[in-house]
């Protein structure tokens, strides 16, 4: 009888206190992605950089080196945003895992941009590693791999 009472109490707690930890984690990761999806097309460099930790690592596709630290990552994003007119950016998480204060996310994305008068679309796979620092999650590792670029007609 005690086990049944405990089980009912736990079920009621889940019902009354809202989302499960998986739902909360999914919601958090989607919110982080939504922030990036809003900032990148706006060219909000300061906003984008607020998503990274001071010692973050960034591994862009087709790049010779691993970018280490906010300053190196900022220079990369600044050149990218000045070079391309990004008109849309979407990230779709495929896997999300949490361990203590770390979140591991993999997914697929699409970046739409204008380049030399043409509408272009770049699809990519990505992996983000987030760590909770000073009460908020920031990227400590960001990497992506391009798929072939498509020209929209």
Summarize the structure in short.
Residues 30-138 form the DUF4440 domain. The chain is an alpha+beta fold.
Class per helix and strand makeup: alpha+beta
CATH class descriptor = Alpha Beta
Mean pLDDT: 86
The Rg value, from CA coordinates, equals 19 Å
Q: Helicity, in percent?
A: 25-40%
CATH topology: Nuclear Transport Factor 2, Chain: A
Number of helices: 4
Largest sheet: 7 strands, mixed
C-alpha end-to-end distance: 68 Å
Overall body shape? globular
Please, how many domains? Answer: 1
InterPro entries: DUF4440, NTF2-like_dom_sf
Signal peptide: 1-20
Keywords: Signal
Domain DUF4440: 30-138
Describe the structure.
The chain is an alpha+beta fold and 153 residues long. It has one domain: Roll (Nuclear Transport Factor 2, Chain: A), CATH 3.10.450.50. It contains four helices and seven strands. Strands 1, 2, 3, 4, 5, 6 and 7 form a seven-stranded mixed sheet that branches. Mean pLDDT is 86; it is low at 4-18. Residues 1-20 form the signal peptide. Residues 30-138 form the DUF4440 domain.
Map the helices and strands.
Elements: H1 2-16, H2 21-42, H3 45-49, E1 52-59, E2 67-68, H4 70-83, E3 85-99, E4 102-115, E5 118-133, E6 136-146, E7 150-152
Parallel strand pairs: 1-6
Antiparallel strand pairs: 1-2, 3-4, 4-5, 5-6, 5-7
């Amino acid at each position: 009888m005690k086990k049944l009472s405990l089980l009912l109490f736990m079920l009621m707690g889940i019902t009354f206190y809202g989302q499960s930890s998986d739902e909360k984690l999914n919601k958090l990761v989607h919110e982080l992605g939504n922030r990036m999806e809003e900032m990148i097309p706006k060219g909000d460099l300061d906003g984008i950089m607020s998503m990274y930790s001071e010692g973050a690592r960034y591994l862009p596709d087709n790049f010779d080196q691993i970018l280490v630290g906010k300053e190196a990552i900022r220079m990369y994003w600044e050149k990218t945003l000045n070079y391309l007119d990004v008109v849309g950016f979407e990230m779709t998480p495929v896997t999300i895992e949490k361990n203590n204060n770390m979140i591991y996310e993999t997914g697929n994305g699409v970046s739409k941009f204008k380049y030399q008068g043409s509408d272009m679309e770049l699809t990519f796979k990505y992996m983000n590693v987030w760590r909770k620092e000073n009460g908020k999650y920031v990227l400590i590792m960001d990497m992506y791999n391009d798929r072939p670029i498509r020209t929209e007609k």
